[in-house]
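Record type: ASSEMBLY
Status: queued
Input:
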Amino acid sequence: MMNKNVQTFLACDADYDVADTVLFGVPFDGTTSFRPGTRFGPSAIRNQSFGIETYSPYCGKDLADCRIFDGGDLELPFGNTEKALALTKSYTASVLADGKRFVMLGGEHLITLGAIRAVAELYPELEVIHLDAHTDLRDQYIGESLSHATVMRRVWELIGDGRLHQFGIRSGEKEEFEFAGQHTDMHKFDTQGFSHTIACLEGKPVYLSLDLDVLDPSIFCGTGTPEAGGLSFKELLETILQLHRLNIVGCDINELSPHYDQSGSSTAVACLLTREILLQIIK
Amino acid sequence: MMNKNVQTFLACDADYDVADTVLFGVPFDGTTSFRPGTRFGPSAIRNQSFGIETYSPYCGKDLADCRIFDGGDLELPFGNTEKALALTKSYTASVLADGKRFVMLGGEHLITLGAIRAVAELYPELEVIHLDAHTDLRDQYIGESLSHATVMRRVWELIGDGRLHQFGIRSGEKEEFEFAGQHTDMHKFDTQGFSHTIACLEGKPVYLSLDLDVLDPSIFCGTGTPEAGGLSFKELLETILQLHRLNIVGCDINELSPHYDQSGSSTAVACLLTREILLQIIK
Amino acid sequence: MMNKNVQTFLACDADYDVADTVLFGVPFDGTTSFRPGTRFGPSAIRNQSFGIETYSPYCGKDLADCRIFDGGDLELPFGNTEKALALTKSYTASVLADGKRFVMLGGEHLITLGAIRAVAELYPELEVIHLDAHTDLRDQYIGESLSHATVMRRVWELIGDGRLHQFGIRSGEKEEFEFAGQHTDMHKFDTQGFSHTIACLEGKPVYLSLDLDVLDPSIFCGTGTPEAGGLSFKELLETILQLHRLNIVGCDINELSPHYDQSGSSTAVACLLTREILLQIIK
Amino acid sequence: MMNKNVQTFLACDADYDVADTVLFGVPFDGTTSFRPGTRFGPSAIRNQSFGIETYSPYCGKDLADCRIFDGGDLELPFGNTEKALALTKSYTASVLADGKRFVMLGGEHLITLGAIRAVAELYPELEVIHLDAHTDLRDQYIGESLSHATVMRRVWELIGDGRLHQFGIRSGEKEEFEFAGQHTDMHKFDTQGFSHTIACLEGKPVYLSLDLDVLDPSIFCGTGTPEAGGLSFKELLETILQLHRLNIVGCDINELSPHYDQSGSSTAVACLLTREILLQIIK
Amino acid sequence: MMNKNVQTFLACDADYDVADTVLFGVPFDGTTSFRPGTRFGPSAIRNQSFGIETYSPYCGKDLADCRIFDGGDLELPFGNTEKALALTKSYTASVLADGKRFVMLGGEHLITLGAIRAVAELYPELEVIHLDAHTDLRDQYIGESLSHATVMRRVWELIGDGRLHQFGIRSGEKEEFEFAGQHTDMHKFDTQGFSHTIACLEGKPVYLSLDLDVLDPSIFCGTGTPEAGGLSFKELLETILQLHRLNIVGCDINELSPHYDQSGSSTAVACLLTREILLQIIK
Amino acid sequence: MMNKNVQTFLACDADYDVADTVLFGVPFDGTTSFRPGTRFGPSAIRNQSFGIETYSPYCGKDLADCRIFDGGDLELPFGNTEKALALTKSYTASVLADGKRFVMLGGEHLITLGAIRAVAELYPELEVIHLDAHTDLRDQYIGESLSHATVMRRVWELIGDGRLHQFGIRSGEKEEFEFAGQHTDMHKFDTQGFSHTIACLEGKPVYLSLDLDVLDPSIFCGTGTPEAGGLSFKELLETILQLHRLNIVGCDINELSPHYDQSGSSTAVACLLTREILLQIIK
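Status: finished
Output:
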């Protein structure tokens, strides 16, 4: 009767040893230039996950039937970006070394770099699917090379030309769009071509990075830099429901900023997407 | 000049005796498990109704031409679920006994049971249309049989197989969906088949239960348990604009939780739907 | 190094003399009947404009390549409607006299009258495009002839029959819709027919009045009188992307009320539309 | 059973004819220069009054034993300051003509002028007690003579030198403080001297104007122009508990702006003060 | 490295078996009549406890040196008041049976009855210290005998005359104050006499019930029924710092409603008081 | 007429060259561990400063008579703490080199280190007055030596024993209080001894660091880490009104976090204190 107060995402209560999938949070928002607060994202997702069900009527599967460990949030230093990335890489690497998949909850988008540094070492042929409103392809941002606005440029440096598949992009500098034209597989505005990309990537190791601001602010206002003209929930859901065809070795869901989500509906969206992504990537 | 401070929904200022339709509120949220606050729904709808017009450009009718009595809110005990349902049934029964239709404003969804207990006694052949994100078909919820999560199971016990027509459902336990497969007429995710249902129900006594969370959170974030993937406003409006073909003997509009509606836009949606439903059901 | 703290809309930092376009704010909400606060609109748009980019992937142009002067906000008396309109007219007239175009940020919709009083003097053949949820065609409102609810009736008195092209209208009194049937070119509910109107107006002097509540509250909740059933962002964007075909001599963007925009996403929408409109009207 | 939905301040449900005291609201904020919203004050006070008791342990009296009529809110035009004042004066005059006292709920402070125009006609020897953070003694404000910032200058013009007793004042222009030194009985910062003033005014007709921002923002943050350094609740309460010694012929309680009172505690303070003032002025 | 995500109040991370004190939450607000939300109190206190230190400069002790088990929140049914009280009593009784003290975090004030039902069985000579703005001595409230407004009447029935020591009381019906005059030791408005009470109770088993609304709303706005005129933080702190002289066998801290605490400062106050009370009652 | 939109703190509109005092903002919150947002502090203070007057009835002086330049906010990189401090030091040094005093608006408390690095180079005998709720004397915080929680330890390293005069301190680790006992002049809980300190420091170069959370949360809730038991506004004001006796060569006002100040009253407090400090330090 006298149990400890363990808090996990909905039904993700397996022990680490038996789990095949690890969920963990990286509450980092240190390079956020406009409105900070994504550090509160992971705990908001856990807390509000009890407002949805474990069963998905979309794919007919149930989280209660899975073996997922929720490792809580990494404890990070404040004001030291490099160290935060190093801790993220280290945790990710140990999960991979134990033969498990992972879903990382952000935090700001830069955390993706920490995870991919670990994943790309293990999988040199890594392909990355990037759903986002923003290009994130700047080389520098206000003099810094490590930033939410440069993260995909840094990822490209790790994986090389043609392996970064971007969808939903509708904001960036002119130079970033030109860079994308030469180096990445960018699909502007929506998810046209996603099925084709899925077909091409079957069998390869794939990392999925979902910046939730790819959604239209009508359905996802709880983020630091809302950009109108995004995907509807159903468009994004259709995309996610194809992911079981891929070998997703790791993924992240980032940029929920709960302070801008007074109603909790953005957090509810993030919870639902987390559930669906978990159900898709678990074999 | 020195009038009392009477507050009604937009233009619903007829005297009870001459009214053919009664609007009333049931500010009950006693079984809400996640985030309470629907008790404030009816008064929010009344207060904000003055932000919309009495005239509908959708159906060309005007509330100012109708005879509707707004009876205010029932006064309920707190912490006593059975008594709240009994008071709701009693008020409903007396309205029906006086030969009037009613629109009940919630409050949480359980209040539907109070109203249908009265309606089903008068109309043993009652058919129920249920618009909702959630199945609400659990038999028990945390050990309780009376709950917002069990309300439609209780309604089914009153009206029997095949008479519960559910639309927009996208959340529930696996067992609830299986139960629906055997006992109710469930249409998952959207309103496909609604016109056919309308055609089948013409001439029969019909009760309409509208849980506003059937709408997508993009247009209706002001509710305790937002569930992504719902109806757009226009989809729901098209559905409602068909209701004049039916004999609606009573209906409810529930689950607005104004504290999660910082902008007031969910409340504005509830006001508009209340106007359109009133204009549809009045003969 | 020690510069003054000049605040402008994104990249609108040209000097007045060299600018061909002037942006200015009119922080007036004196006749707002329901929920005031649009006075805070212009400064919210300026502050949050740094959350978007200067480059538009929609039209391929960049604000950084334009010469736009941001004149800040007019200083207005409080409680004196006529004087506020006179100051608005006077500022507008002087901009026009200097041979420049303008984009005026509201404030409530009545400010349109101040600007059009100046524009219509200069362009007697003026055509007006009006995007709005509301008819705004009352003759009087609570005994007043100058009101956000009467503004387009006053505009019609200035420009005459057939020159007021209304789109997206879905709220008003029965009499207003009847008036529109006789005197204005009203397109109810959506933007059907907009391309045709564009074709007809090519070459003529055109004023554009954009009441942001023409958008659906799902994407634009930050306004005093949200009205469900409106345009999606993409519908409105498609409309705006046609404006370069016209000779827009002045325009306004009004009714953002930041206090009802907790997440800032409505303000982000207003910023993006301001950018796109500027890029469309500049030759 | 089927009663109309009458809303009054706590227990103020007497009929007009038998009442000796009238409570009414003036939801006007048309000259508010900084942050509007006091128009919502009266209804917030009524709605939240049910969170306090009718009985006062401070004076041992009970509102349930009084005969008070709550007349609701005046219906005012928007954008027409003079007309709003005229309507306020007219209502006040008719209440006085019927031999009743009144408590007027604001709304912004300018409404005091409307009421005092009526009261001063009936009582040429009127004395005014003014509790406020601000001098309100400007002659003009942004070119206007009717403003929340000029209201006590206008009152002084009506009642003359030495009859305006100001307490708690801690904000104004240098010129206003100098004006006060010559023409009013100003007590800066606190309520020192209040008992003496009470003693001097016994037997005379007195009007009380309570601008709630006289309170420190710690206990009353829900106002448009909070000014630190104000009265504690207990200091103000002690002041009010002396009012039964006077012949208060009318009074107002103004400047609650509920949108800045997220917790409702400022509104609770306004409710309690309204109760105590009513209990003090009723004979 | 891969630990479970255990969440406790600041440093309360001892195992149950070695702990001498148990902290637990009762997230119940089922009889709240005005504004619900105290169910979110315990988790808000845990989450925000990391904003304060474990060390107290007031008493020189440190939570890190104590052995406290945080048992998380009880899982309660919704809408069934009697069952919630029974579960609270049962948990409390088992903690006492294991020879431990407890601090219970509410939730609404009614939960005190559940705990005292267990404590009073073990300690028939129990004395109760009750800090509150409200009398809570009604016999019935809207027809119910179990309510936040009747809880201390029910407690009095258990412990008898003269054993209920009430401080800070400033709101109630006239009849409640009269009842207190005959049956309880009530100190109105403040904590005068507290030291004397402490002296009288030394050596006896004492239960402390702290309704946080005893504090003035200036320092504690985050509660459902704020009542002006309360204790300052320092007044309450001085009271608490005397508690080590007593034998506190159990206590509760209740009525934090985080939704009315936008800034988090009320929650910070609750955290600090929880720390100080823990440090006082631990021997 | 067509002026640029320059935004300054109330009346601080002198040109840099003629100014004797410089106001500037440092919108940095990169090491904030709990709740970020102080980056928005300086602009909130500027915007809301127009809600107060330029004239102080406390000291009889007027900002309109002073020559103060408002330099706006420093543009800082995100995620690079050292560079932010270097930019702060550089700006401060150039202001000092031009023979001017400064008031720096934070941002988080760490920015004090940037400024004092410049000031201490110029004034080796520098004394520092530190008003704060927190000791800020940790040597490391989560492995970092540059943090809001270590800032005063770093300052002590620059200025040495006995030159750091701390007031209002009521939160810290046991070790920090012990460190203070040996190395700083710490006054716990309140401002007792402040007049004596003033007397001792007359004639010496003094830096003032005001962490606004030294105030009680009742009057200043708008901060990331509210700590109950603080100074009242009047206590702090009395302290500040003695500053004219000192030679203040620079000062900062930090830790306003506007997102936690829904009502704006904390920002109003910050504005008033900024005005009073400016009026005190200008000769």
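Annotation: The two ends of chain A are 34 Å apart (CA to CA).
Annotation: The first helix of chain A runs from residue 41 to 48.
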